[in-house]
Amino acid sequence: MTVEGRLDAIRQESATKLDEMRQTVDEKLQTTLEARLGESFNRVVEHLERVHKGIGEMQSLASNVGDLKNVLTNVKVRGTYGEVQLALLLEQFLAPDQFVKNASVDPEGRERVEYAIKFPADGEQVLLPIDSKFPREDYEHLQEAIAAGDTKLIAQFRRELESKIKACAREISKKYINPPHTLEFAILFVPTESLYAEILRQPGLFEQLQRDHRVIIAGPTNLAALLTSFQMGFRSLALQKRSSEVWQLLGAIKAEFDKYGTVVSALAKQLTTASNSVENLGRRTRAMSRKLKDVELLSDGKTAENLLGLSDEIGDDGFEEATQHEAPTVDIVVPNSTNRAKH
Fold this sequence. Notes:
By secondary structure, this protein is of the alpha/beta class. The protein contains 9 helices and 7 strands; from the N terminus they run H-H-E-E-E-H-H-E-H-H-E-H-H-H-E-E. It has helices at about 1-75, 75-95, 135-150, 150-175, 195-200, 205-215, 220-290, 305-310, 315-325; strands spanning about 100-105, 110-120, 125-130, 185-190, 215-220, 330, 340. The N and C termini lie far apart (about 200 Å).
């Protein structure tokens, strides 16, 4: 009985210990699972919040795209968009005095084009009209047909787009091309490169518009290249004008230099005459000196100043006074001669 009692006690104690261990393990597992599940749930919530935020941003972006689509649906607003882009290109490549906004293309001022470039011609200025067009609906219908792969609709909408561009070119030619106030051609500007590329894709359309309506199609890149070439031409004309002015100035300087040479020649002749006169005077002075070298010197303490009535020191005033008096008559004795010279 004692052994059995001890075994029962050991069994009971073991069961108690096992229960405690099971309870401890269960508590730890529960705590760890709750912590892990909480962390995972928090991460899921965080990701869901980010997704919700992204969806909100996408909705806002879609709303903005819809607003832009609504804006571009208005024909007047689309025209303003093309006009603004055209203005930016002109301001970037040309000087302010090289183009005109709302330019009049006739003397009465009845027709005005969005923009016109000034070109010099025979001392006056002629205009190159530039008008912007944006047939968005026709282009979008064509793109939708291309995306759907419907060949019939593609051909139909391409014909409609071609007809729209021809109508725009016909309008520009009729309203804005008016020689001699304008050049004999105009530019139709489309504000997107994709639309310009689609127009070029139409066989023979570009050449037909030039031939029949004298209108050139230009997209943003093509117009930038045209404006660059125009700017280089304007610089060449300015250099040519400046070179002409410099040539005229050189001609005037040459004429003045010829006059200067004439004056120098006359002055040289006068100096030569004066030099000859001085030389003749020197010869006469030397001849007189040779003739008077044998004249007797004055004696009896008389001086030349006393005989001539001159003072010892004559200044400027004395010289003027002395020259104003008549010189007295002086007898000069010449050796071996009975003649007397009077001065």
